[in-house]
């Protein structure tokens, strides 16, 4: 039994050591700073105004290359998201800069203006067209980007993240990436230096500049604000039911606590007259 316990302790220690070595193996990648997000934590919720600003940044900047193939225009008016009115969402669809590509009644390729039920179309007809227009590499779809990108904090910091239920590493990375471009570095042709991107050389240029997008609500019109807003919006596209999930999860947790208490006192009641039990 002692040998088994020693082996388990040794294996656990080895696992922690390996976890702590992970950041050292990727020393060239600078971990992004933590940002403050309204949706962080067990009670976090999306900021509706921020989601609407983030959609504006996506529409005016990101949509020129990147698609949102998992998001429909009607989702923009549903609870838990940007919550545009149905009329606003319909107007956004009708005025969208990219058309829906389909096969017409004559069997030939055709295009039409998007409708509420349509997925948000991207700039390119297919992956091959996207690759041809971007030097052989298609711009990735952004629907799940904050979940697809992240970073490792290593030991012991990942333990704190588990305890505090911090799950916004992808959002932190994405915001830092969008503001992490630097000049003055020697880069291979067709690439740009980004201090937060693994390997530091990325094909996408710096797309956010101060004053580029005009906000109507008085929010700062800076690259950092644009990055935070579009990141929050993309976090919603990746987790459109996050608020509902958190709400139901908390309710279930409370139910289980009450159920555990009832079970305990029921056991006390049933066994109170049995000798040796309380």
Structure summary:
This protein has helices spanning 2-25, 48-60, 86-94, 127-133, 145-148, 157-164, 169-178, 223-238, 242-271; strands at residues 68-72, 100-103, 109-112, 119-120, 192-193, 201-202. By secondary structure, it is mainly alpha-helical.
Kindly describe this structure.
The protein has two domains: about 15-25 and about 45-240, Cytochrome Bc1 Complex, Chain D, domain 2 (Orthogonal Bundle); about 245-278. A two-stranded antiparallel ribbon has the order 1-4. Strands 2-3 form a two-stranded antiparallel sheet. Strands 5-6 form a two-stranded antiparallel ribbon. The radius of gyration is 25 Å and the shape is globular. It has nine helices and six strands, in the order H-H-E-H-E-E-E-H-H-H-H-E-E-H-H. It has about 280 residues and is mainly alpha-helical. A hairpin with a 7-residue loop joins strand 5 and strand 6. It has helices spanning about 1-25, 50-60, 85-95, 125-135, 145-150, 155-165, 170-180, 225-240, 240-270; strands at about 70, 100-105, 110, 120, 190-195, 200.
Question: Which helices and strands, and how do they pair?
Answer:
Layout: H1 2-25, H2 48-60, E1 68-72, H3 86-94, E2 100-103, E3 109-112, E4 119-120, H4 127-133, H5 145-148, H6 157-164, H7 169-178, E5 192-193, E6 201-202, H8 223-238, H9 242-271
Helix pairs in contact: 2-8, 7-8
Which percent range describes the beta-strand content? 5-15%
The CATH topology of the largest domain corresponds to: Cytochrome Bc1 Complex, Chain D, domain 2
Low-confidence stretches: 16-27
Can you give the mean pLDDT?
A: 89
H and E order: HHEHEEEHHHHEEHH
State Rg. Answer: 25 Å
**Strand segment tally:** 6
Helix content: 40-55%
